[in-house]
Amino acid sequence: MTETTRALRDGGLAAFLLDHEDPADTPILHRKDGSLTRGALIAAVKVLAGRLGQVAGQPVACLVDDGVRAITTMFATWLAGGVYVPVNARLTDAEVRAQLLATEPAVVVAGPAQAGRVPEGIGLLVEEAPGRWASPRPARPPTGRRFGEDEAVIMRTSGTTGESKPIVLSHRGVGDGIDTVIAKLRGGKAKNGGRPPMPNLIPTSQALWAGAWNTLFSFRLGAPVVLMDRFDPVDYAELVGRFSLRSTILAPAMMAMLIEDPRVRDLGGLRFVRSVTAPLPPDQARRFRERFGVDVLNSYGQTELGGEVVGWTASDTREFGASKLGAVGRAHPNVEIRILDEERREVPPDETGEIWIRSPFAHEADLAPDRIVDGFLRTGDLGRLDAEGFLWIEGRVSDMINRGGLKVVPQEVEAVLRRHPAVADACVAGVPDARLGEVPVAWVRPAGTERPEETALLAFLREDLTGYKVPVAVRFVDDFPRTEIGKVLRRELVASFDGLHRAGA
Predict the structure, then answer these.
(1) Which of 207, 260, 263 is nearest to 235 (CA)?
(2) What InterPro entries has UniProt attached to this entry (predicted)?
């Protein structure tokens, strides 16, 4: 064993799987159609690590279309001393090619369906059958950046408002962040009262940091993982019942799908869900609780910050769960939050500004210098801190509409639109305007088969909003363009706006 590999096993993220106390025959990965024990997963990891060869300090990419393969590759990469790079197989061929060429991995791990998408000149390992690997192209000699022993994962930001950017996360930062969240959830207790950990149902792809982080979080707890490579409301409800789950994670778009799916009558004994990947509007949290009797706990984090940095404790949930529904919680230990105005001055409690966060889990070396000031990361999100220290997310700075010098926060308008009985969901974005610079337009998904009248919706908005916040037009859609984790792609809506039949600027 090399010194690099030994260090990873002793103190790195590979230890979350390799050095756990659970017996080898303990089921650790579940899927709809089967399970895998801890011993079988470790054996698969060791086989793949051997096939990767000499990759210490080099990127190893996985073209992710299968959760078990992705998890196996992640741990095998660390065992071999490499840096793990998940690439989402749902990207276009051009996007996959661009990410692989930019990363310059020593080798790409893929299934048979994805192998042909890997550019020539890059090493390739193909899983022809579970645990059986073929090597059409050997790992290539290192040509790009060599990474340090503590560097673990290269993740890309979502890129919803621009080109995605690579962020390098460290073993120490990710591990400390996960341990901080676990300690906060347990109220500082080292163990959970001796009870065996409940399985963690992960309905997001392992190509996303939310999926990989929650897998590591589960293994650190000693909890098995239930994987869903693609979210389906009926499958989700069935898995909740099969494993008698009391809590899981869900993205906001997944909650909306569950609410609206008539096939899902209940969610068994589920008591609460933790919202991940995007801020959850309070009205959607209320709808979910009313439909299923399940409480929703929001949380907040960014890839750049190393994961979750703001969240709820059990005691906060008992005391504030109902009164602060929609807040993302309070800062984790050693995390600091500032809310600043456009002049970078701190604003009073309950006043909206841009969120700046200092996190010990961030990897500042890979962040643009203008995003870090005095150790605080400029998140690009709008929010407010209330008197009790709870953080409320109000939107994105880049989404804010400047209507002739008057600022419109789209999420505020969307929340009012969702209160209309004929509206299932809504999105508001700014479109260019020759006189005012930009003006707000609303895209609405109707609740039924009949579209509401545009004039009626605008009149409804004027009852609660000042005039400049009311959109100049409404467009109706069957659904919104979204990222894989459910974030609406506002830029695509703006690009589709025809500019006709506006109600007036």
Answers:
(1) 263
(2) AMP-bd_C, AMP-bd_C_sf, AMP-binding_CS, AMP-dep_synth/lig_dom, ANL_N_sf
Cβ neighbours, 10 Å, residue 132: 9
3-class secondary-structure state, position 459: helix
Residue 62: count other Cβ atoms within 10 Å of its Cβ: 29
Residue 415: half-sphere exposure toward Cβ, Cα within 13 Å: 19
- Extract the tokens encoding 50: 């051997």
Q: How far apart are CA 146 and CA 303, in angstroms?
A: 21
Say yes or no to pLDDT of 348 above 70. yes
Picking from 310, 243, 305, 240, the residue whose alpha carbon sits closest to that of residue 270 is 240
How many Å apart are CA 370 and CA 196, to the nearest integer? 45
Question: Which segments of 86-143 does DSSP mark as H helices, in order?
Answer: 93-103
Q: What is the 3-state secondary structure (H, E, C) of 471-495?
A: CCEEEECCCCCECCCCCECHHHHHH
Whether residue 193 has pLDDT greater than 60: no
31 - beta bridge partners? 34
pLDDT score of 14 more than 90: yes
Is there a contact between 441 and 478 (Cβ–Cβ < 8 Å)? no
Tell me the mean pLDDT in the region 257-280.
87
Nearest C-alpha neighbor of 242 from the set 215, 219, 270? 270
Domain spans, the chain: 3-169, 177-397, 400-496
> What is the rounded distance in angstroms from the CA atom of residue 189 to the CA atom of residue 197?
14
- The strand pairing partners of 225, in sequence order, are 29, 200
Question: What's the rounded Cα separation, in Å, for the pair 487 and 500?
Answer: 26
- Identity of the amino acid at 481: P
User: Which architecture, in CATH terms, is 400-496?
Assistant: 2-Layer Sandwich (3.30)
Using a pLDDT cut of 90, give the percent of the chain over it: 56
Query: How much of the chain, in percent, has pLDDT values that exceed 70?
Result: 91
Rounded (10°) CA dihedral 318, 323, 329, 332: -50
Chosen CATH of 3-169 out of 2.60.120.1140, 3.40.50.980, 3.90.1150.10, 3.40.190.10: 3.40.50.980
Contacts of 23 by beta carbon, 8 Å cutoff, 6+ apart:
38, 39
The length of the chain in residues reads 505
What letter would DSSP give residue 224?
-
Q: Taking a C-beta distance cutoff of 8 angstroms, is the pair 70, 77 a contact?
A: no
How many other β-carbons are positioned within 10 Å of the β-carbon of residue 270? Answer: 21
Instruction: Give the DSSP letter of residue 191.
Output: S
Answer yes or no: same fold for 3-169 and 177-397.
yes
3.40.50.360, 3.40.50.12780, 3.40.190.10, 2.40.440.10: CATH of 177-397: 3.40.50.12780
Decide if 311 contacts 337 (C-beta within 8 A).
Answer: no
